[in-house]
């Protein structure tokens, strides 16, 4: 996986004035992240994730934190948001996922985390990233559109969106004399 150089943690004041800390996941965070998903609602509605059944959810979560570059949003030491980007092969089109705990939605946290992940994808050399979202999830769709994701393919219950990442500029500007 590419080495991510980013100034962590990132502080964010949400729409309700709360100080949110966003930082990379560490193995010590697993119990707190699991706790977030155990109380997360609604379960299973977005392409079956987070899984409804506890054992399946645990297995899914272990796979995500092992295979995705993961960042967390915390409030007063409690995990309230999770975003992941599969950077195992940035030459491919990595998958993106994000979940914000109830009570913290509609406050800009998801938009801010998505924009951070967009910067990380760019820094890692990704050309585009994609996600799947339920057509009825207008809240999530607004977040993704703010980050410039666009729908791809036809209209269905689940829709794919992708975000084209501008290539890193290797061109040196010539100074006119």
Structure characteristics:
177 residues, alpha+beta, Aminopeptidase, five-stranded antiparallel sheet, three-stranded antiparallel sheet, 4 helices, 8 strands, 27% strand
Summarize the structure.
The chain is α+β, with helices and mostly antiparallel strands. Helix content is 27%, strand content 27%. The protein has a domain at 10-131: Aminopeptidase, CATH 3.40.630.30.
What does this structure look like?
Helices cover 27% and strands 27% of the residues. With 177 residues, the chain is of the alpha+beta class. It has a domain at 10-131: Aminopeptidase.
Give the SSE layout.
Elements: E1 10-13, E2 19-24, H1 30-38, H2 54-67, E3 69-75, E4 78-85, E5 96-100, H3 109-123, E6 128-134, H4 138-146, E7 150-152, E8 158-164
Antiparallel strand pairs: 1-2, 2-3, 3-4, 4-5, 6-8, 7-8
Helix pairs in contact: 1-2
How many angstroms separate the termini? Answer: 43 Å
Write out the strand line-up for the largest beta sheet, numbering strands in chain order: 1-2-3-4-5
Determine the CATH topology of the domain at 10-131.
Aminopeptidase
Largest sheet: 5 strands, antiparallel
Query: What is the CATH top level name of the domain at 10-131?
Result: Alpha Beta
What is the arithmetic mean of pLDDT? 88
Could you say what the CATH architecture of the domain at 10-131 is?
3-Layer(aba) Sandwich
Query: So, the CATH homologous superfamily of the domain at 10-131?
Result: Gcn5-related N-acetyltransferase (GNAT)
This entry's quaternary arrangement is single chain
Strand fraction band? 25-35%
The geometry reads as globular
* Helix-strand topology string: EEHHEEEHEHEE
The share of residues in helices is 25-40%
The number of strands is 8
What is the rounded Rg?
17 Å
List unreliable stretches of 5+ residues.
170-177
């Amino acid at each position: 996986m590419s080495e991510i150089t980013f100034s962590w943690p990132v502080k964010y004041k949400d729409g309700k004035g709360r100080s949110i800390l966003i930082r990379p996941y560490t193995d010590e965070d697993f119990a707190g992240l699991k706790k977030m998903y155990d109380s997360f609602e609604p379960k299973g509605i977005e392409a079956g994730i987070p899984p409804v059944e506890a054992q399946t959810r645990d297995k899914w979560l272990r796979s995500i934190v092992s295979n995705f570059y993961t960042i967390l949003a915390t409030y007063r030491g409690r995990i309230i948001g999770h975003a992941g980007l599969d950077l195992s092969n940035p030459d491919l089109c990595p998958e993106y996922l994000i979940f914000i705990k109830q009570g913290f939605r509609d406050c800009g946290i998801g938009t801010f985390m998505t924009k951070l992940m967009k910067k990380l994808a760019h820094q890692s050399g990704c050309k585009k990233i994609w996600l799947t979202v339920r057509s009825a999830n207008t809240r999530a769709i607004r977040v993704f559109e703010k980050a410039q994701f666009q729908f791809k393919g036809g209209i269905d219950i689940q829709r794919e969106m992708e975000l084209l990442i501008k290539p890193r500029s290797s061109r040196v500007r010539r100074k006119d004399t």
